[in-house]
Every structure is written in C-alpha cells, then in structure tokens.
TrEMBL record:
The keyword Ribosomal protein does not apply. GO terms for biological process: glycine biosynthetic process, by transamination of glyoxylate. PANTHER family: ALANINE--GLYOXYLATE AMINOTRANSFERASE, AMINOTRANSFERASE CLASS V. Gene3D superfamilies: Aspartate Aminotransferase, domain 1, Type I PLP-dependent aspartate aminotransferase-like (Major domain). This is Aspartate aminotransferase. One of its GO terms (molecular function) is L-serine-pyruvate transaminase activity. It comes from the Bacteria. Keywords: Aminotransferase, Pyridoxal phosphate, Transferase. The modification N6-(pyridoxal phosphate)lysine is found at K216. It comes from Poseidonocella sedimentorum. Its cofactor is pyridoxal 5'-phosphate. InterPro entries: PyrdxlP-dep_Trfase, PyrdxlP-dep_Trfase_major, PyrdxlP-dep_Trfase_small, SP_NH2Trfase/AEP_transaminase.
Length: 414
C-alpha cells in the first residue's frame, strides 16, 4: 500500500459563535504553548494541580474536598460523575434536549443489568431508570421534578443545569429541594453553566455530584480538564458500591490532584500521565475567571445576550432560549425551514454558528468569551449579511439603532 504523507495541517481562525468551544483567551493559549516539557510528577506540575483544585473550589463555591479536573472534555467529567450509578440503581433522569438526552443514555448504560445491556447494547432500556421527557424548547420545572421524585423515590435524580441543545435553563434549586424531600441524590450536568452563571454549588445540598467542561464557560481548551465536584455523601455511596473503572474512578482520579483518602495532601500521587501544557492552560483559565469574578462575568453575559437577542428579534427571528451565553431561535415565518442553509452559509465563511442537533432545526448563536460591543456588532452584521443573501429583508438602520441604544445606555450608566 502507498503511504500518503499529507501537507502540514493548517486550521483557520474562526469566530467561534456557537454553544462551545468558546473563543480561547490569548493568555490561555500562551500558557499552553509556553509550558516547558515537564513530566507529570514534576513539582511545579503537581503544585499547579493543587492550585487548580483550590481555585476550582472557589469558582464552584464549594467546600467539597473531591473537587478537581478530569482530563478530557465535558463527557469525561460526566462519565466520572455517573460512574457512581451502578447496575440496577434506580434513577430519574430529566431530558429536555440533546445533551440531557445523552446524559440519559449514559445513565441507562450504567444502570442497566448485564442482561438489559446485552438486549440493546447501544441503547439499553433498564427497568430501574425513568426518563422524564420535557419537550424541546421548554425548561425542567419544579412541579415536574417534584412529581417524578415523589412517584419513583429513586436513589439518583439527574438533569442538565443549562440544556445547550435548546438553550433552556433548568431549575437546580427545585432539583436540590426535591432530592432532599424524597431522599434522592442529585447529579447535575453543569457543562454549560459553570463560569457563565454566578452560582455556588454548596447552596444546593440535595445535589451530590456536579460535572462541567473546560471549553465553555471556563474558557480553556478542549481536552484539558473537565471540572467535577462530589459531596461526602456521594463519596460514601461510591465507597459502598464501588465502580467498574480505574481511570474514571471518582476517588482514584482525585489522587493526582492531591486528594488522598478524603483529605488534601501536600501533593498528588500517580494516577495517570497528566500534561504540563494542559495544567498550565487550565491554571491560567481559572486565574482569569477569578480575576474577572463570576458576578461581573455573569452580568456581562446577561448584558451582551440581551443586545444580541434584541437585534435578532428586530430581524423578525423568534428567540426561544433563556440561557445568557447562547441564543436559540427560529427564522421569520417566510424563511422557516431554511435554518440549516443559513447556518451552513455562515460556517462556510468561518463564522461558526450552529444548528440545533436534534429536531426541530433552529439556529444557535453563542457568545462564549465574546463579551464586547465589537464582538456583538460583528456577529450581528455577519448574520445580517448572510440573512440578506438568503433573501431576508434586513433594516440595517433599525439594527444599528437597537445596538447603539443598548450599548449607549450602559456607557452612559457607567
Ligand atoms: C457541551 C455539552 C456536553 C458535552 O461536552 P463535551 O465537551 O463535548 O464532551 C454535555 N452536556 C452539556 C449540557 C453540554 O453543553
């Protein structure tokens, strides 16, 4: 066979205006690229991991000792969190979009007995798992949560905090309260909310496990570290059941971060090979988050999201999301059904917006780490260009007026 050696791969810079990954800060890229070659037991790498763990506790708002990063992306952290779910465990999983749907699949795979898994290996339907489906475009609300937990009294109850598939936020206060009331243990996919919304996980005592990702609100690179945090109750449950994973074991994976036998150690011990580059990048992303402050950052997301939303509504689009980092919408009636075409036209020009990944097809525009008037003006004008090419009427003067009013007012208020 002939061996093909391809030309060197070059990947262009794009405007990453989707649900994630976000636009990586220069400081994070520099930290990644300028780390020295050092092995995973080098003192500065181990110290960096301990510092990351401490910064992460501050960002997540927790005293949980078991708070650290899982190498990989969001699904890596989620896999660690869901590893406490064992075959036969009772689980209620709330699903209102693509990602909570995949969380549901993860839970079904882990809760399935050997027979249930063999019966449908890629899509098991264990009797012990109840999937509560909430329609696309709607949030998971207190009444739905309480009713399901009252009826099923499960060991575990899980949902996404912010469902990035449809851009809907779900009520974690209600999940926490219902878990306490019905003696369930809550597990939350906080992949899209951590680093965007200002919340402290210790304010939700019914939720025992949390998992997030590097490249959305935390603004680090994918394949660095997915933040996770587990309460003592979660760890006790896991100690009692065990789990069938070495590398993604919630207790063992914590060792390299200096969490050993439930206590902080001065430095970590070997679990697997960590990357000095990834540690340096993650460390810098956490520093940036703490320097900006979650309160200021979440306020900024609220402000810029409302400007983008107003501009899209001026173009006649119907916004159905309520997240502050992502706007999900339908085109005006006459252009319904042409969402994918518009998204593909934008993507072809390195303006990286997204469609929804499950039906119905909607457009998603995200603003992760794009928090400035310049960025929002660019996103709106690029989108308006593409919309006009599709034949949509766009009133540029009205758009300019809306953005000027929005941005002018705050400058005046400052
Ligand atoms: C992005 C996302 C995931 C998956 O994260 P990856 O980093 O792609 O592995 C899971 N859940 C939610 C809510 C997400 O937004």
């Amino acid at each position: 066979m002939d061996t093909v050696i391809y030309p060197k791969l070059t990947i262009p810079a794009t405007i990453a205006a989707g649900p994630g990954p976000g636009n990586t800060d220069e400081r994070v890229l520099n930290a990644f690229a300028s780390a020295g070659v050092a092995d995973h037991m080098h003192p500065d790498v181990l110290r960096g991991m301990v510092e990351c763990k401490e910064m992460l506790r501050a960002i997540m708002g927790t005293k949980n000792t078991y708070t650290y990063g899982v190498a990989g992306t969001g699904w890596s952290g989620l896999d660690v969190m869901f590893n406490a779910v064992m075959p036969g465990d009772t689980v209620v999983m709330f699903v209102n979009g693509t990602f909570s749907g995949l969380d549901g699949l993860t839970v079904r795979m882990k809760a399935a007995t050997a027979e249930e898994l063999a019966a449908a290996p890629l899509d098991p339907q264990p009797a012990s798992v109840t999937i509560v489906n909430v329609p696309h475009g709607e949030s998971v609300t207190a009444d739905v949560i309480d009713a399901a937990l009252a009826e099923h009294k499960p060991k575990w109850a899980a949902m996404a905090h912010w469902e990035t598939g449809s851009g809907r936020t779900n009520d974690i206060a209600a999940l926490s309260a219902a878990c306490e009331k019905h003696r369930a243990m809550g597990l939350v996919d906080a992949v899209s909310s951590l680093g965007v919304e200002d919340f402290a996980i210790d304010d939700y005592p019914g939720i025992v496990g949390w998992a997030s990702c590097p490249q959305k609100g935390i603004c680090c690179l994918p394949l660095t570290y997915a933040p996770v945090s587990f309460s003592d109750r979660y760890i006790e449950a896991l100690k009692a059941s065990g789990t069938r994973s070495f590398v993604h074991h919630p207790i063992l994976e914590a060792r390299h971060w200096g969490i050993i036998d439930g206590k902080d150690a001065e430095k970590g011990t070997y679990h697997r090979t960590h990357s000095a580059y990834a540690v340096a990048a993650f460390h810098e992303a956490l520093r940036i988050t703490l320097q900006e402050g979650l309160a200021a950052r979440s306020e900024s997301y609220r402000f810029y999201e409302s400007a983008l939303r107003a501009a899209l509504e001026e173009m006649g689009c119907e916004v159905t999301s309520n997240m502050t980092s992502l706007v999900v919408f339908n085109l005006p009636g006459a252009f319904a059904g042409r969402e994918m075409e518009l998204v593909q036209a934008c993507r072809a020009e390195n303006f990286g917006i997204w469609p929804t990944l499950s039906e119905p097809v909607q457009i998603r525009i995200g603003i992760l780490n794009l928090l400035s008037t310049d960025h929002i003006n660019t996103i709106v004008s690029r989108f308006a260009d593409a919309a006009e090419k599709l034949g949509m009427p766009v009133d540029r003067a009205a758009l300019d007026a809306i953005l000027a009013k929005h941005f002018g007012e705050t400058i005046a208020a400052e």
